[in-house]
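Lab notes, practical 5.
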Amino acid sequence: MLCIVRHGESEWNVIKRLQGQKDIPLSKKGIQQAKKLATHFIDQNIHFEYVFTSDLKRANQTAQWLTEAMPISGIKTETALRERYYGELEGRLITDIVDTLPDFQINFGVPMRYGMESLEDMQERMVTAITNIAKMTEGAPTLIVSHGGAINAFLHRITNGEIGTGKGKLANTSITQLRWLDDSFEVEAYNHTPHL
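Output from the prediction step:
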């Protein structure tokens, strides 16, 4: 089982400022969201043998809160699980960005501007990273903490666009559960928030 969780609310989520790979910490609400999800995991007797997280604070802090009461050997940080790099757009208010680039978060197949990482490149690194994790953990209960845009791009690829990018926004600390079987992913739950 692979359990992919979007990080808790960050300070910039609150003010709707584009984060990308800027290293912004969780807000107080984000910490509470992570604590509630940790309690849900314990109540449901869900434990993880492996934990992987993006190295950015908001994901790493979420992973720490989620596993605080679990007997795990350690949390492995992976830069490949980071959010998309938005170049010069990072730090700007999303409302201002939408005025000039309305499709900036779902812009498949167009030349990149402002030093942005292409959606395809971000999608490819996420698919490679999560596939490698799935092969390495061989079906053991595994937690992956990452970012909304990155998770959605991954899901877009493995479901041929049925879910993911352009289909909806992932909630903070939402759970997406996958099964790795016969070298492919099966989505068992998407954007699930029973703890909120």
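Observations recorded by the TA: Residues 119-137 form the longest helix (19 residues). The CA atoms of residues 11 and 27 lie 5 Å apart.
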